[in-house]
């Protein structure tokens, strides 16, 4: 599998940046995980929209779904309909995703499991202000897990157990935790990386108000494996 970072900011982009969007590719199969603002433009640098086999949304916050509201125009122009998997909560947001013949919308539930091409997809609900599902993708003995947005939730440890790559949100810094934010600090992300025994930990969902080196400083000596601060348009092998 190959992962390309199409957006790694939240809850709004930095100058020239984009919010959550991640392309997973394996042979001819292409899956877009989340579709925040700026993601469609970056996706087009890599592949055509109609090449996508599916879009999976971790949750329905705008920084994870905004570009789905423009991506639909090109799909409907081209007469291509693609499957979109999303939590159906909040109901009004879920209903808003429907558009003519662009999307085939399916609700995500805790124990839902299905295949897209050779890829096996499963989910785990993780604590956030909106219903949010972590997404696990497995193929040929390789395991990739993406958290979506989450605050402290030990369910991630079992769900991401022994993953080759865990793409984990790190939206805030330790000093923000006193305000009980709905996000993980970089240090908490490292803790879960260790407890899950993942081989490579990729941090994402960086708040633009911080410099990346502030996240780096928090993670020094915190994680036992290979730690990566994701970079826009960078590709990582899984
Ligand atoms: Zn977010
Ligand atoms: Zn969120």
Automatic annotation (TrEMBL):
Residues 18-205 form the Metallo-beta-lactamase domain. InterPro entries: Metallo-B-lactamas (IPR001279), RibonucZ/Hydroxyglut_hydro (IPR036866). It comes from the Bacteria. Coiled coil: none annotated. Pfam families: Lactamase_B_2. GO terms for molecular function: 3'-tRNA processing endoribonuclease activity. Signal peptide: none annotated. This is Ribonuclease BN (tRNA processing enzyme).
């Amino acid at each position: 599998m190959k992962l390309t970072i199409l957006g790694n900011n939240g809850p709004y982009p930095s100058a020239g940046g984009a919010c959550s969007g991640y392309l997973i590719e394996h042979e001819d199969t292409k899956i877009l995980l989340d579709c925040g603002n700026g993601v469609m433009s970056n996706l087009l640098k890599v592949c055509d929209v109609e090449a996508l086999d599916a879009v999976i949304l971790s949750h329905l916050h705008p920084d994870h779904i905004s570009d789905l509201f423009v991506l639909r125009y090109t799909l409907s122009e081209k007469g291509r309909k693609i499957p979109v998997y999303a939590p159906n909560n909040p109901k009004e947001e879920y209903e808003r995703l429907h558009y003519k013949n662009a999307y085939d919308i399916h609700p995500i539930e805790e124990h839902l499991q299905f295949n897209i091409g050779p890829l096996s997809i499963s989910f785990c609900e993780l604590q956030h202000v909106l219903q949010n599902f972590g997404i696990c993708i497995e193929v040929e003995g390789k395991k990739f897990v993406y958290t979506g947005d989450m605050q402290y939730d030990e369910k991630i440890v079992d769900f991401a157990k022994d993953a080759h790559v865990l793409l984990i949100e790190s939206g805030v810094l330790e000093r923000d935790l006193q305000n009980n934010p709905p996000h993980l600090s970089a240090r908490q992300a490292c803790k879960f990386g260790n407890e899950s025994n993942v081989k490579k930990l990729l941090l994402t969902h960086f708040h633009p108000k911080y410099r990346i080196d502030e996240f780096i400083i928090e993670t020094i000596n915190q994680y036992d494996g290979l730690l990566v601060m994701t970079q826009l348009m960078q590709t990582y092998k899984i």
